[in-house]
Amino acid sequence: MLKILKSIKNSLLILIFFSSTALAVDKPSSKYDGAYTYSDYCRGSKNSNAYDGSQFIIRDGIVTNDRGGAGRWNIDEKKSKVDEKGKIYIKGERRGNKSIITGNLNNNEKKYSVYQFKRKVGGKSQYYGDKQYGNLKMKRKYKGDSDYVPCVINFKRIGDVPKKVVSKDDRKVTEITINSKNTNDDITLLNNDGKNQKVRVELRNLESISNGLIIVVPSSTPNMDDELYYEKQVSKHGYATAIVYGAEPRYQKKFTGSYTSSMILYDALATIDEVSKQFGKPKEVILIGSSTGSLAIFKAGWQDLRDKYPSMNLITKGFMINAACPDVSEVKYSNKIQMYAINGQQDESTPPWVCKNLKDSSKNPNLYLLNYSGGHHFESRMYPPSKYDGESMHALPTCSLNYTSNLHQIIKRRDGTKEWNGEKKGYKQDQKKWFGKNCIDKGTLQGYEEYGAQQFWDDVKSIIVDKKVAKSLKGYTE
Question: Residue 219: helix, strand or coil by DSSP?
Answer without folding.
Answer: coil
